[in-house]
Amino acid sequence: MERTYLMIKPDGVQRGLIGEIVGRFERKGLKLIGAKLMNVSLERAERHYAEHKGKDFYEMLLRFITSGPVFAMVWEGDQAVGLSRALIGKTNALEAAPGTIRSDFAIHTNYNLIHGSDSHDNAEREIGIFFSEEELVSYDKAIQVWI
Ligand code: RTP
Ligand code: MG
């Protein structure tokens, strides 16, 4: 079992796409174990995007992610990291496969609706930035046996 950190970015919240996006992960069969609408402080944004420090889009990325509320989530399931990245699609909407979130709803690389952890280790690191363990809910899904 693996956990991943997913975050609907300010564009997704402002465009009213929270329900649409959350529904895709629910229907896939992953288990939602934590969620909250929140503003991201500059300090949290810098920790989250530390790997991009120094890149030409870094400052813009920080401004964007702190510009309005995000919908922060933790999802659990077998291969949750890889499966979530597959549902999200490539960073650039032009390269994202049809049927992925970014292909279906995004136009611009900078406004690509959702973040998904790119590795198991980064998932655990990012969950720690945005959630305390007390905010995460442990429960069984009745139909999990078929997924
Ligand atoms: P994310 O971290 O948000 O899930 O996206 P990702 O893994 O697909 O892409 P990543 O390389 O981690 O980049 C993080 C975010 O920075 C913006 N970006 N802009 N060339 C560019 O202008 C550029 N490259 C990346 C995107 O918003 C990307 O999601
Ligand atoms: Mg990334």
Distance between the termini: 12 Å
Q: Give the amount of beta strand, in percent.
A: 15-25%
Mean pLDDT: 96
* Element order: H for helix, E for strand: EHHEHHEHHEH
* CATH class identity: Alpha Beta
Q: How big is the Rg?
A: 15 Å
Which term fits the overall shape?
A: globular
The DSSP helix count reads 7
Adjacency order of strands in the biggest sheet:
2-3-1-4
Overall strand count = 4
Helix content: 25-40%
- Unreliable stretches, pLDDT < 50, 5 or more residues? none
Bound molecules: ribavirin triphosphate, magnesium ion
Q: Quote the CATH topology.
A: Alpha-Beta Plaits
- Going by CATH, what is the homologous superfamily? Nucleoside diphosphate kinase-like domain
Q: Helix- and strand-based class? A: alpha+beta
CATH architecture: 2-Layer Sandwich
- What profile does the largest beta sheet have? 4 strands, antiparallel
Subunit structure: Homotetramer.
Subcellular location: Cytoplasm
Function: Major role in the synthesis of nucleoside triphosphates other than ATP. The ATP gamma phosphate is transferred to the NDP beta phosphate via a ping-pong mechanism, using a phosphorylated active-site intermediate.
Catalytic activity: a 2'-deoxyribonucleoside 5'-diphosphate + ATP = a 2'-deoxyribonucleoside 5'-triphosphate + ADP; dZDP + ATP = dZTP + ADP; a ribonucleoside 5'-diphosphate + ATP = a ribonucleoside 5'-triphosphate + ADP
